[in-house]
Design goal:
Layout: E1 3-6, H1 8-16, E2 30-32, E3 34-50, E4 53-57, E5 62-66, E6 74-75, E7 80-84, H2 87-122, H3 128-160, E8 163-165, E9 170-174, E10 182-183, E11 188-193, E12 198-205, E13 219-221, E14 231-232, E15 237-239, E16 249-255, E17 268-286, E18 290-293, E19 296-302, E20 308-312, E21 314-319, E22 322-327, E23 334-336, H4 339-346
Antiparallel strand pairs: 1-3, 2-23, 3-12, 3-17, 4-11, 5-7, 5-10, 6-9, 7-8, 9-11, 12-16, 13-14, 13-17, 15-16, 17-22, 18-19, 19-20, 21-22
Helix pairs in contact: 2-3
Length: 347
């Protein structure tokens, strides 16, 4: 995890003007070491995802006979993507319609017959049992027509499965099938995504959001893009309430603006999350005040007798004309700004 200090111009200027003491001519130029609040940004690897992405599979089996589009094409809602051989399905649909028509004719005949039997029953020319048989025949024929019509409708619906259309406007990202391949139910045929709805997803440690500085903007970096389009400052983000039991991380999702160009699912990104430092305070001094002698880093501290004393220090990150001091000095101490002059004064 990378970290860098964002102090900005205001902090740098405040350090350079830390009560620089210029007494009478001949005295050492000095400054006071002061602690400065700082906000650090931690970076986390992330990836671009599509909010709406669909893997389209076949619902029926058959040979692929037409592929009007290819990977990378932009498609409209309802546009034909794949055609599967539907000759057998069409024959089944025709047979279903014929059977439904036959059942409809049988019902018409049964309707006329039951009406005739009712007329004869009223004149007591037939028995009660004959009348009941005619009504039962009519009901059976009616139910048979319903079943045949349902089967015909199913055949018509299934015939529509042989033409695969785009469910929404988007871009085809994967197209692993070719002309002549055999389509099988459940076998993925292509992947389509909506380029207008993208997000960046990063996996964060459990403590990352606890250290997040509320109100500070989160930044997204795209190292693979040109410098003019490498950085974005989104306004909406979401932290999923669940934590992965194996990695002990939670997901941070950041929505990208619709106007974002050159970004597609799978692109590598970094999320820079403003967070509090371990101590919340950082000590900075002028870089020119640091003494470098081999591997030893030091600084001249003005003691109570106003004499410079060399003290070894450990340095942190540099920011402009200032450098962070991790150990060796404390806030409020006065240091010499000019090491060369301090050496002469120490003698």
């Amino acid at each position: 995890m990378l970290r860098f200090s964002r102090l900005g111009a205001v902090v740098a200027m405040s350090v350079l003007h830390m009560s620089a003491a210029f007494a009478a001519q001949g005295e050492l130029a000095s400054e006071i070491v002061r602690a400065t609040d700082s906000t650090e940004s931690a970076s986390y690897n992330a990836v671009v995802e599509s909010i709406r992405q669909t893997v389209i599979a076949a619902q029926v089996s058959g040979a692929i006979v037409a592929l009007p589009v290819k990977a990378g094409d932009s498609v409209k809602e309802g546009q034909v993507l794949v055609r599967i051989d539907a000759r057998s399905a069409m024959q089944g649909s025709v047979a279903g319609q014929a059977q439904a028509q036959a059942a409809r004719s049988a019902l018409e005949l049964a309707t006329k017959d039951v009406e005739r039997q009712r007329h004869l029953f009223q004149k007591q020319y037939i028995s009660q049992s004959a009348m009941e048989r005619a009504e039962a025949q009519y009901k059976a024929t009616s139910e048979q027509l319903k079943a045949q019509m349902a089967q015909a409708n199913v055949a018509d619906i299934q015939s529509g499965f042989f033409v695969i259309k785009a469910p929404y406007e988007g871009v085809i990202s994967e197209f692993p099938v070719a002309l002549g391949d055999m389509a099988m139910p459940g076998k993925p045929m292509l992947t389509i995504f909506d380029p207008k709805g993208l997000r960046v997803t990063a996996s964060l440690p459990q403590t990352a959001m606890n250290n997040y500085v509320a109100g500070q903007p989160i930044k997204i970096e795209f190292p693979g893009l040109p410098p003019s389009r490498q950085w974005l400052s989104p306004t909406h983000f979401q932290v999923l309430p669940t934590i992965d039991a194996s990695t002990h991380t939670s997901q941070l999702r950041i929505e990208l603006p619709e106007s974002t160009s050159g970004i597609s699912p799978g692109l590598f990104a970094r999320v820079w999350l403003p967070s509090h430092g371990a101590s919340g305070k950082h000590l900075y001094v002028s870089s020119k005040a640091i003494v470098r002698r081999g591997e030893m880093m030091g600084i001249y501290v003005i003691d109570s007798n106003k004499r410079p004393v060399l003290r070894q220090i450990r340095l942190g990150k540099s920011q402009g004309e200032t450098t962070e001091v991790l150990t060796g000095v404390s806030a409020g101490e006065r240091i010499a700004v000019d090491p060369a002059a301090a050496v002469k004064e120490a003698r």
